[in-house]
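Example record

One chain of 149 residues, shown exactly as stored in the release files.
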Amino acid sequence: MAKFKFRLATLLRLRESARDERRTLLAQAYRAEDVLLDERQRLEAERAALEQRIRGAAGPGEIEVDRLIEAQRFELVLRAQKEHLARQHELVKAEIERRRQALVEANREVQILENLREKQHERWRGEENRREVKRLDEVGQRRAIGEVH
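Predicted structure tokens for this chain:
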């Protein structure tokens, strides 16, 4: 019995490889987003700590003007960093969506070839079964002819 050979197997392997590469690229984009979200949390924690220091510097008693000015400057730096992170996050989200769409397309291309392979395999199996039945019929006819003579 002959073995089934999918003629587009090489193309299927290439498309699977491309799909795997796109999956890796999407995972990298998600990791980049995680880094940005972690950095945003760090900035929020730093801003909360700064707010506490400002309250302490402006509390009852002697007001430390230099400390307040320094804290306000640092607050402006933190705000600018937060805005920069927000812009970067928007870019990363757009890139994630682009890479996700590329992965969806690659999955679709692989699925098309896998469906084609399955249909061809079913057709091949049917043809192999018909050949086997024909061979068995011939053997049966030869035996029947041999028993008559």
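Notes: Residues 65-148 form the longest helix (84 residues).
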